[in-house]
């Protein structure tokens, strides 16, 4: 189940959010702490105005909420609101039983809040939040919360891949607790939100705006990742990197899986330790994954087989599980070549200028060299350019001498990150003059048009954007992962 966290300031705003997201969600969480004070007073009416079950929550600031009331006032407000037709009420694990007895003019004696909820068939969620870490006794805490018959909820903050493993292990460690909610907050926790069923969690929260750290929108969770439709037979694929959430790769692979009715999901994993990720990959039976910076070299010691391109380039961007071992390939190599293969075959690309000498440049220079193109590498650090040129039998020069090559090469390839955020206005070679006859290849794909891309277009060059290479290498990965060609009727939105 996907649960939409409602953070509107009015009930009407929250009703609109439910309506807008209705096709993607199964239930909603009304956050009283986001409501205006006068709206809180009538919050009990909310569940009867929407057509899905609602969780009632009034979160303290110490637990990541906005409530500034005294604890006594907070619990009284929660009690009054809970008189509505809510399906669940969230009560923090450290709230004492004695604090949950209230005077009510309708009753002679004090009302036991918990007992009254149970008598009405309202489920209690007992929640624990930790914004600093994943506690060492996490399984014990969950078991203790479940002991009363309530639904235990833990929202904790993994700070490493080891912490992420601890959350995914909860499914086997706590298999006897059928109903539980396990959430990994923050950047490392995103994969646990998407693969919440693999943690043994009964639901995952999603947002329609401001939400908890790492929370994704309902549409992304349901349409892109199909998180609520994953099952035990779903094949898990992914991409590892640090950073990783800028990646457009899920928008290539997941629509492809859906188009051919392949039961699989492609998930981003923020990875600080490659060794720990391989442990997680075994635990989740991950079938394959893409690799981005800074792990393209780091994964190689864990691979049973690598292709000639990986050996040559020294970088692996695709790992697949084959016969109980991991195989490493490099689809950047062929993905780069795909848009210019005809020009190389026809002999209209014989010389190339490659800007940059980093990881992306290595695949580009080797691909061109292996296809008989004479390459010159220019780079801010001449030493790095010389090292790569020695390996690839290419020429090299300083970035400041770029104008020497104006009008003298058939292909210009831009492999640096210049033009990406935060350097959106920068051009790696502002003094380079395009003749208009060059084929220009910009590897940056976000944004679609960099200053370098625009200058080349204005000069009349044939310009290839980075999205083409990304899609082509992604299609090759898709074939490695699934054994099927990428569906030609799917056009990824990059």
The termini sit apart by: 28 Å
From the 3D structure, determine the CATH topology of the largest domain.
TIM Barrel
For the record, the CATH architecture of the largest domain stands as Alpha-Beta Barrel
Q: State the domain count.
A: 3
Q: What's the tally of helices?
A: 17
- Give the uncertain stretches in residue-range form: none
Give the overall silhouette: elongated
> In CATH, what is the class of the largest domain?
Alpha Beta
Give, in spatial order, the strands making up the sheet with the most strands: 9-8-7-4-3-2-1-10
Strand content: 15-25%
Q: Indicate the radius of gyration in whole angstroms.
A: 27 Å
Largest sheet: 8 strands, parallel
Mean pLDDT: 94
Helix percentage range: 25-40%
Structural class: alpha/beta
How many DSSP-defined strands?
22
Kindly report the name of the CATH homologous superfamily of the largest domain: Aldolase class I
Please name the defining characteristics of this protein.
494 residues, alpha/beta, TIM Barrel, Rossmann fold, eight-stranded parallel sheet, six-stranded mixed sheet, 31% helix
Description:
The chain is an alpha/beta fold. The chain folds into 3 domains: 2-230, Aldolase class I (TIM Barrel, Alpha-Beta Barrel); 239-333 and 476-482, 3-Layer(aba) Sandwich (Rossmann fold), CATH 3.40.50.10860; 335-471, NAD(P)-binding Rossmann-like Domain (Rossmann fold), CATH 3.40.50. The protein has helices spanning 11-21, 37-40, 71-81, 113-119, 138-146, 161-173, 190-194, 218-224, 250-259, 274-283, 308-313, 331-337, 341-346, 359-370, 382-392, 451-458, 466-482, and strands at residues 2-6, 27-31, 54-57, 88-92, 101-102, 111-112, 123-130, 151-156, 181-184, 204-207, 235-241, 264-270, 288-291, 305-306, 318-322, 325-329, 351-355, 374-379, 395-398, 411-414, 439-442, 462-464. The chain has an 8-stranded parallel β-sheet with strand order 9-8-7-4-3-2-1-10. The protein is elongated. The two termini are 28 Å apart. The mean pLDDT is 94.
């Amino acid at each position: 189940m996907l649960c939409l966290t409602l953070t509107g300031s009015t009930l009407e705003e929250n009703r609109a959010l439910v309506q807008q997201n209705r096709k993607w969600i199964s239930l909603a969480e009304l956050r009283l702490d986001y409501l205006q004070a006068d709206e809180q007073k009538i919050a009990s009416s909310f569940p009867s105005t929407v057509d899905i079950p609602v969780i009632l929550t009034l979160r303290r600031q110490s637990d990541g909420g906005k409530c500034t009331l005294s604890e006594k006032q907070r619990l009284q407000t929660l009690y009054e609101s809970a008189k509505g037709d809510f399906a669940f009420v969230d009560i923090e694990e450290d709230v004492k039983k004695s604090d949950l007895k209230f005077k009510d003019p309708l009753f002679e004696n004090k009302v036991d809040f918990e007992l009254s909820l149970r008598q009405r068939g309202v489920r209690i969620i007992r929640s624990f939040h930790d914004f600093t870490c994943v506690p060492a006794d996490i399984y014990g805490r969950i078991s203790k919360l479940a002991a009363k018959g309530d639904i235990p909820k833990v929202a904790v903050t993994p700070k490493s891949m080891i912490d992420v493993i601890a959350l995914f292990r909860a499914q086997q460690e706590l298999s006897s607790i059928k109903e539980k909610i396990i959430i990994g907050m923050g950047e490392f926790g995103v994969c646990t939100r998407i693969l919440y069923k693999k943690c043994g969690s009964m639901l995952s929260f999603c947002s329609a705006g401001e939400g908890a750290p790492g929370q994704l929108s309902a549409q992304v969770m349901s349409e892109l990742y199909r998180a609520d439709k994953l099952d035990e037979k779903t094949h898990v694929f992914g991409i590892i990197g640090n950073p990783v959430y800028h990646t457009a790769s899920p928008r290539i692979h997941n629509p492809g899986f859906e188009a051919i009715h392949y039961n699989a999901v492609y998930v981003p994993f923020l990875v600080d330790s490659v060794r720990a990720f391989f442990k997680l990959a075994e635990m989740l039976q991950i079938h394959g994954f893409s690799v981005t910076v800074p792990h393209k070299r780091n994964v190689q010691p864990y691979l049973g087989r690598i292709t000639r391109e990986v050996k040559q380039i020294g970088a692996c961007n695709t790992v697949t599980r084959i016969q109980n071992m991991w195989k490493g390939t490099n689809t950047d190599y062929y993905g780069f070549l795909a848009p210019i293969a005809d020009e190389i075959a026809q002999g209209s690309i014989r010389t190339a200028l490659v800007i940059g000498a980093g990881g992306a440049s290595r695949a580009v220079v080797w691909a061109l060299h292996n296809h008989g193109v004479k390459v010159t590498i220019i780079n801010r650090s001449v030493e790095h350019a010389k090292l790569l040129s020695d390996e690839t039998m290419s020429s090299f020069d300083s970035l400041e001498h770029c104008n020497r090559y104006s009008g003298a090469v058939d292909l210009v390839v831009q492999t640096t990150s210049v033009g990406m955020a935060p350097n959106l206005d920068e051009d790696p070679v502002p003094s380079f003059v395009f003749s208009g006859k060059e084929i220009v290849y910009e590897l940056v794909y976000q944004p679609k048009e960099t200053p370098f891309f625009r200058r080349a277009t204005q000069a009349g060059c044939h310009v290839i954007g980075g999205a083409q290479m990304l899609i082509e290498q992604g299609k090759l990965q898709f074939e490695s992962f699934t054994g099927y060609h990428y569906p030609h009727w799917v056009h990824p939105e990059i």
